[in-house]
Amino acid sequence: MSNAPDPQLAAFRRSIDNIDAALIHMLAERFRITQAVGAYKAKTDLPPADPDREAKQIARLRALAEQAQLDPEFSEKFLRFIIEEVIRHHEQARG
Question: Where is the signal peptide (predicted)?
Fold first, then answer.
């Protein structure tokens, strides 16, 4: 077995690293916006959670996941995790 790096594997990993960096930046931007929403909701006395919007978003993103050939169950778990964190921030903003 050779210790030389596999150039194809290295190229795949560079692409994965680039995608991971983009995901982090996109999540950071998303949370900057949702924090502004949380501040607005606190100022206007709106509830931290919006179950109707959340259900619509989950359905929309499940459909997008299917179109993208991504497991819709995984995409829903991922989105629910994000939504829970956003609601937690909104509750803190009310605090």
Answer: none
